[in-house]
Amino acid sequence: MGGMHIRSSGGAIGAKITGIDISVPVDTPTFKQVEAALDRYAVVVIRDQKLKPAQLAAFSRLFGTPQINVRTEGNHEDVPEVGWITNVTRDGKPLGSQDAGRYWHSDLCYLAMPSKLTILHSLEVPQRDGVVYGDTNFAGMAAAYESLPEAVKRRLQGLEAANSYRYMWNRKAYDFGARKVLSEEELEQYPEDAVHPVVRTHPSTGRKCLYVCEGYTRRILGIPEPESEALLQRLFSHAVRPEFVYSHKWRVGDVLMWDNCAVQHKASFDYAPPLRRVMQRCTIEGSAPQ
Ligand code: SIN
Prior knowledge:
The protein is an alpha+beta fold. The chain has helices spanning 28-41, 53-61, 141-146, 150-156, 165-176, 184-187, 225-239, and strands spanning 5-8, 15-18, 43-46, 83-86, 89-90, 93-94, 115-124, 127-128, 131-132, 136-140, 160-163, 194-197, 199-201, 208-210, 217-220, 245-248, 255-259, 263-267, 278-285. Helices cover 23% and strands 27% of the residues. Succinic acid binds at residues 85, 100-101, 107, 118, 136, 265, 267, 279, 281.
């Protein structure tokens, strides 16, 4: 290949890498450049890859420990750390998660050790009459935090919030109908809420990042409920202001990586069968947010 090339999207986040092949083992200097690009741009796409699930898992493992998604029915049958994100069915059943990314969120923030990195590989991208559908939208959480008024930053200092998979589940079931409504007892099979700082410090860059999201953050703790609700609604809308957002337009063969401390994301559901969207995803465990 002609050598690796990294090009910024021109916005606060987002970059494109060309000229590498990650289906084979990546040497250390190349890997270090990819890591540095992630710290700098937070969302990075490597174009033109064709990875089998085991190759996607092997590349992902360079970044740390893979996580097995709690929704096990969407995990790949042979390589469980790879999850299907797709609207297609097999034998009449959904092949993988059909409603991942409906709300703005940071991956696995409902766990004590959330994902530091997500890697999503596109196998089929919905397209009609030359128009590509199913973009993924990202919002930069360092820029979002830095642009908050000083009084709000002071109010957020030291606050923690509950991030809840169980709370998300039935909301998604009622809002979109792609999953079954579960009873309180059934929800207990899923993780308990995780308590994390509302503002966390990025473990590599040291930048402060807003760490609440409409998908999973249920409640700011230690303050009255109405104040928690008002503050969360304000932060949710501030976090995704257009100036912080990069929208990724997919091509088949993209390997899109994002830093879950530095960004939150949301998928676009602007397509439906017969258009097909088929992706495979790995997430890598991070440290406890500080
Ligand atoms: C996700 O939220 O991880 C999925 C994003 C997407 O399908 O665009």
